Amino acid sequence: MGNHTFHRDKALVELEKLLLSNTGNLTALQTIRAPVFVGSPEIRGSTTILWSCIITLVACIYTALHLNVPANTQKMAMLGEKLKWVLIGLIAPEVVLYLASSQFLDARRLSKELTSLWQQKKHVDGVEMEVQGEDKFQEVEEEDPVFDIKYGFFVAMGGLEIPIKDIQHYTDRLATRGTLESGNLRLSVNGVLQLARLGHFLTIPSSGIDDKSKADTFEKFLIMTQVIWMATQCTVRKSYGLPICLLEIHTLVHVVCALVMFVFWIKKPKDVTDPMPVEPSRFRNIIALMVQEQFHFRRSEEIIFYPRSRIGEVRPEQSAFVWAHQTDLTRRKRLTDEDHRVLPIEWVRPKGNSWTLNVGEVLSSGLGIVGRSASWQVERFQRRVLPDWFDDSPYDRPSDIPSSVWITEWVDAEPTRPTIDLRPQDIVRWERVVDAIESIEGRIQQPELFHHDYQQIRYPDQHFHDAFTRSAGNFQYTGDSQVDPDQILSFIFSSPILLILLLVLPAVYGGIHFLASSQRFPTEVELLLWRISSFDIMLTMPVFFAVTYIGSAISRQFFEYESLGESSWAMFYKFPGHLMIFALENSRSFMRAPSTALGFVTTLSFAIVGP
Question: TM spans, by residue (predicted)?
Fold first, then answer.
């Protein structure tokens, strides 16, 4: 640094001398007149760099975040949720970028498809009116609803809430909002699209969305000004050949990610605390079917519908079924009595707050229950009995009879028949489910299973399972809570955007930090760790995907087991995956700690100077 010459502002030099000579003299300091303009010091202090970077980093991410409608609207809970996502944005910016990009794509998809469905509806309505008209088409002026990307974001963030208290038994009044237990569910993008395909459009005025949004344009302008100022400062310093500390490089990388978040979320309403209630009276049957398919589909596997009669019709006698094969629908067994006579179904009327539906009993809606196991075979078991010739009257208790007297016999018994416990809300839901199915497919003419096979949903192409968001959170991951590489892999592969972000962003992130290793480090050990961490961030995700994909492919090809966790091979190839994720988080943490520490070191050791 001795070869460089500092050209300091004369007014600054004279003012510094005058102030230093009067240190502690408060009277003199209050009478000293400063020049009209004094240039800034050319040497930046550590506090200046830290303050600029940390404030820019945290404020930028905090402002860029546009979270979904919260489940808990208490102020501290909402603040904690936002701070949590600020921390995630600092540690793993690609996760937040995935949220922004996926929500943007969902909002755009919803906007385009709703607009197309509305135009189709207008065309069909217009054709019907033209056919019914006498001489010419009579057009009815109807203002088209606005299904723009702002509307799409509002739906994607859980802005539409449906009450389900009449079809879902709930007891926890303090349950998280937007969950099944709370008695209210929030429609997802697929749920709104499904209703629109069936002719039910949920229109929301743009002004209503704006009223709920708390976006502050001036706040965004101030943050963008701070971001641009810091980026310009670093660019100018680099063009002059002046050093930039690692903390500034690290901050600029995150600032770029935050700017991309701004772009994706520019039309998303911000800080919406309460969803908009939707009155489902026009499509309550469809809502019941959506709830049944998404949240009660496992119990739906044993459901069978019998044809029900209308008012004034004679109800025909129908055979009761006790079993139906899970894949071959032609293989069924009828309910019989002790004399092997086929029994008819028994129409029942439930009573009380809790009621059990047995095989052969049918509600007025046509709802019944059957066994769905792969095989319905007669079970044989052994039991001890006394011979017919033996007189047990001299004995007070069976245990007093000598064991040599007892004989063993084989007994045939039918498999246990399934039952289902129903509450009044369940019965109402099932009545509406049957009405919805008949409105979509036509009246049920013969006994029909709810599912075509053991696990397939009834309407796989209509996405009933995705009709509601499964939580009120921001990350809609519905897999198990455990970190299973196979589940993570299938979840990521189902979203190409997330896959690209997880491959490209870590490569760029680690590559920029690796290029920063050309700067001077306090020790060779820290330089080595910095480079190792950079390579780890760049290579972990591709290697993790490759190892997990190959391991799961070998499992499917050569091993048969019910649970991956019980397989030694699964443990063999999953263990490196857990280690790689753990090492990745350690590398990211190391990048942050030395960034701050080395910001001090480079500032103090090399006396960073700038214009």
Answer: 49-71, 240-266, 497-516, 528-550
Question: Which positions ≥6 away from 1 have C-beta within 8 Å?
Answer: 606, 607
Residue 532 and residue 512: Cα distance in Å, rounded?
A: 13
Count structural domains, the chain: 4
In this structure, the answer to whether residues 316 and 404 fall within a common structural domain is: yes
Burial class (CB in 10 A: 0-12, 13-18, 19+), 473: middle
The closest alpha carbon to 186, from 472, 432, 478, belongs to 472
User: Can you read off the two tokens belonging to residue 333?
Assistant: 């067994």
Q: Which domain holds residue 351?
A: 282-465
Look at strands 361-362 and 346-347 and give their pairing: parallel
Q: Within this chain, do residues 224 and 266 fall inside the same structural domain, yes or no?
A: yes
Within a domain: residue 611? no
Other CB atoms within 10 A of residue 418 CB: 19
Q: What is the mean pLDDT of each run of 10 residues along the chain (611 residues)?
A: 54 76 75 73 74 78 84 82 83 79 87 92 66 44 78 91 87 72 86 89 86 74 76 80 77 80 86 88 91 81 85 75 78 85 90 87 91 71 80 81 82 80 91 90 85 53 62 47 55 70 78 75 79 82 79 69 49 68 68 49 38 40
Strands 321-324 and 184-186: unpaired
Q: Are residues 568 and 460 in the same domain?
A: no
535 neighbors 510 (Cβ within 8 angstroms): yes
Under 8 Å between Cβ of 437 and 444: yes
For 545, the 3-state DSSP assignment is helix
Does 37 share its domain with 66?
no
Tokens coding 89: 């944005």
**64 and 193 share a domain?**
yes
pTM of the model: 0.73
Residue type (1 letter), 423:
R
